[in-house]
Amino acid sequence: MTTTNLAGRRALVTGGSRGIGAEIVRRLTADGAAVAFTYSASATYAEKLVAELSATGATVVAIQADAADAAQTAAAVDRAAAELGGLDVLVNNAGTATLAPIDEFTADQFDRMVAINIGGVFWATHSAIAHLGEGARIINIGSINADRVPGPGVSVYAMTKGAVSSFSRGLARELGPRGITVNNVQPGPINTDMNPDEGDFAESLKAIVPLGRYGRTSDISALVSFLAGPESGYITGANLNVDGGFTV
């Protein structure tokens, strides 16, 4: 259902061409926001998303930027603000996952995951602050693995998402006096092309989710839209789990 609760809001979603990010872009535009999103290598997906949403009359802009690169990230934030005429909402969604035992991790794998999952969030936020005013929203997309790790091989990824959780709480303190809220959405198992809800791995996760199934990308985008809107103004510093009960 299309609403207008985000009419007049201008949002940037990092990593918005596929999966959860693309669904966030769809929901924010459906709810009335003008949206820019970044993508790294998925130009075809980005172009299709722009065409899809432009056909509905939405304002949507795709910007190529590698979330691991601080300079590209800063340039993308500034371009988004210029294209949209300002910025009210930042959704730090860009992320990557390398799952491997700690003694098999390479330096390149570690450095890139930290650069994207931690550095990307920091530099996008660092650059966006100049454009965000009273009533603005910063919404980070973390992971339930910050709170619970279901098995081996996830420790480094969990470390990066734990950093996002801590950063969100600290930033809420820092930016609260400016009227800017900061929240961290922590998805559990969500069905995407990179994390399908079928197969042995999926079945092992379903076994420990009380609802017995994966979530949908729309489960995440609905919460992000709420946090971006006018009714969430007294929610800040929260880690919000969307996980089917994964952590209970």
Structure write-up:
The chain is of the alpha/beta class and about 250 residues long. Helices cover about 40% and strands about 15% of the residues. Helix 1 (about 20-30) crosses helix 7 (about 215-230), helix 3 packs parallel to helix 4 and helix 4 runs parallel beside helix 5.
Q: How much of the residues is beta strand, in percent?
A: 5-15%
SSE run: EHEHEHEHEHEHHE
Shape type: globular
User: What is the residue-averaged pLDDT?
Assistant: 96
Helix content: 40-55%
- Kindly provide the radius of gyration, computed on alpha-carbon positions and rounded to a whole number of angstroms: 17 Å
The helix tally amounts to 7
How many β-strands, per DSSP? Answer: 7
Strand-pairing-aware structural class = alpha/beta
Question: Spans with pLDDT under 50 lasting ≥5 residues?
Answer: none
Give the N-terminus to C-terminus distance in angstroms.
31 Å
Read across the widest sheet, the strand sequence of neighbours is 3-2-1-4-5-6-7
Major β-sheet profile: 7 strands, parallel
